[in-house]
Specification:
By secondary structure, the protein is mainly β. It has five helices and 35 strands. It has helices at residues 13-18, 20-24, 146-151, 194-197, 466-470; strands spanning 4-7, 42-45, 47-52, 62-67, 76-79, 84-89, 99-101, 125-130, 136-141, 156-161, 170-179, 206-209, 217-219, 224-231, 238-242, 248-252, 255-260, 266-269, 274-280, 288-293, 301-308, 339-347, 372-374, 379-380, 391-393, 398-405, 411-415, 420-425, 428-429, 435-436, 438-441, 446-452, 457-463, 471-472, 474-479. The N and C termini lie far apart (49 Å).
Length: 486
């Protein structure tokens, strides 16, 4: 499979070297860059139609859907504990919403059409207001016609900054996106293919990094970088290796964890997942090191390269500042008194060409039929009014949820409105105090997570392989208000 990779963190080597003298002053750690002006309390983004050179600067121009004419959309930076007001003006010819993925916010601001808000009609606007309780790396995307709207480019990074800046020289965001392009560089139509939906979903042939042409990332020996990785793909899972470097994971899905190096040096990043790493750039001046995605057997490709300036190292020894990020105010589940829920994932195409767990239906069941189920029930599409909850969780109560993947396929399972602690995988405790809002289940995996149901409302839980979500791998968990109301 041919994979093309792009990047918009690009600074030319000449420009980087010209800035070298300024980087010397970076021994005093720098504050994160603001993206959309952080001093403002109100922001506005507009989903609409745009054009982008997805095959590179000299290549053909593709028709895309984008926020403010950019894919990915503008990087929004908010402040932990400060009110945000974001106006979304719909310039598409169809309904849309925006889901603020990973933010623990009021249910009415969650962006699921029909379930939590009316859809935003063409030409209309909707105002989202929420106060992010957690600092970290999040993102935003539609939850309406999501196969096309997300698959054609509607996604952007949302960063909630810590009250005090983290001690790094640079804070970078890599939005990694998977596309399926034809030989002329245009997005291939045919979203929602039922055969793909019954397997791994729509995996593309082109990967972009911040939506622009692939060029090496300029770095300098001795600097410390905070790198925020965001996977906005419809279905592609990534396993990133930074050759010659030892990235330290400091947060998963925006939530700080015990700093640790990833198993085997590979950062496993399913659709919708985020990982923050801190890297001390210890390569030799003038050297180059590849960043490789080798998740799919035999289909490894180079995402980008780390290209070192020839300047002398910024500092001789690594920064002594602690790697640990400040904690967020997550309620700690009481495991000894937690209520328990099991969710069984079934369906999909088996090796023998038959569907599992759905009555033996064959893989040609197109035209809107369910392919996947959770506990024997299927919810299709993107969300709508009157979706019955699978279960009602007692408000204020701790809950342990066991997710049992009885399928032959991978599933990044995302819970809206909460972050959960990942307790165990296949009976083994998960180390490093890892919290998430999206957990990746391999085939036959059994994963336990725990959280406190302190955010009332009807909350979506679904697979973030979007084809899987829209063909049944989705449900609703209702959380009471802790006062006997649901």
């Amino acid at each position: 499979m041919e994979v093309t990779v792009f990047s918009n963190c690009w600074v030319s080597r000449r420009e980087f070297l010209r800035a070298g003298s300024g980087l010397v002053a970076a021994t005093i750690m720098l504050k994160s860059s603001p993206g959309i002006a952080a001093a403002q309390r109100e922001y506005k983004i507009s989903p609409g139609y745009a054009r982008a050179a997805l095959k590179g600067g000299d290549g053909p121009i593709a028709e895309v859907w984008a926020y403010d004419g950019r894919t990915p959309g503008p990087e929004i930076r908010l402040r932990k504990g400060e009110l945000a007001r974001i106006v979304v003006e719909n310039r598409l010819d169809e309904d849309t919403t925006v889901h603020w993925h990973g933010i623990r916010l009021p249910n009415t601001m969650d962006g699921v059409p029909g379930l939590t808000q009316p859809p935003i009609k063409p030409g209309e606007s909707f105002v989202y207001e929420f106060t992010p309780p957690d600092a970290g790396t999040f993102w935003y995307h539609p939850h309406a016609d999501s196969l096309q709207q997300l698959g054609r480019g509607l996604a952007g990074a949302l960063i909630v900054e810590e009250p005090e800046p983290v001690e790094v020289d640079r804070d970078l965001v890599w939005v990694l996106t998977d596309w399926r392009l034809d030989t002329e560089g245009q997005i291939v139509p045919g979203f929602g293919n039922p055969m793909e939906a019954a397997m791994s979903g729509r995996v593309g042939n082109t990967v972009t990094l911040n939506g622009m042409v692939s060029k090496d990332q300029s770095v300098r020996s001795g600097e410390r970088i905070r790198l925020r990785l965001v996977n906005t793909s419809l279905a592609r899972i990534m396993a990133l290796k930074f050759e010659g470097h030892r990235p330290v994971v400091v947060a998963t899905d925006g939530q700080p964890c015990d700093p640790h190096e990833p198993d085997g040096g590979r950062l496993l990043l399913g659709p919708a997942m985020r990982i923050d790493v801190i890297i001390d750039m210890q390569g030799a001046p003038g050297s180059r090191h590849a960043v490789v995605d080798d998740f799919y057997d035999g289909l490894a490709y180079e995402v980008t390269g780390l290209s070192y300036a020839t300047d002398a190292p910024l500092r001789e020894n690594p920064v002594e500042a602690a790697l640990r990020l400040p904690n967020n105010p997550l309620p700690q589940p009481d495991l000894g008194n937690a209520e328990r829920l099991e969710l069984v994932l079934q369906g999909g195409m088996m090796g023998g060409g038959m569907m599992q767990g759905l009555g033996g239906m064959s893989g040609d069941m197109a035209h809107g039929h369910a392919i996947w189920s959770i506990n024997g029930t299927s919810m299709k599409g993107d969300g709508h009014a009157d979706m019955p909850p699978l279960v009602t969780l007692a408000g204020g109560q701790s809950h342990v949820v066991t997710m049992r993947n009885e399928t032959a396929w991978w599933h990044p399972m995302h819970l809206h409105g909460f972050s959960f602690r990942i307790l165990s995988r296949n009976g083994a405790a998960v180390p490093h105090n890892q919290w998430a809002d999206t957990v990746l289940l391999a085939p036959r995996d059994i994963v336990e997570v725990a959280f406190v149901a302190d955010n009332p409302g009807d909350w979506m839980l679904h697979c973030h392989v979007t084809d899987h979500q829209t063909t049944g791998l989705m449900t609703v968990l209702r959380v009471g208000d802790g006062k006997g109301k649901t």
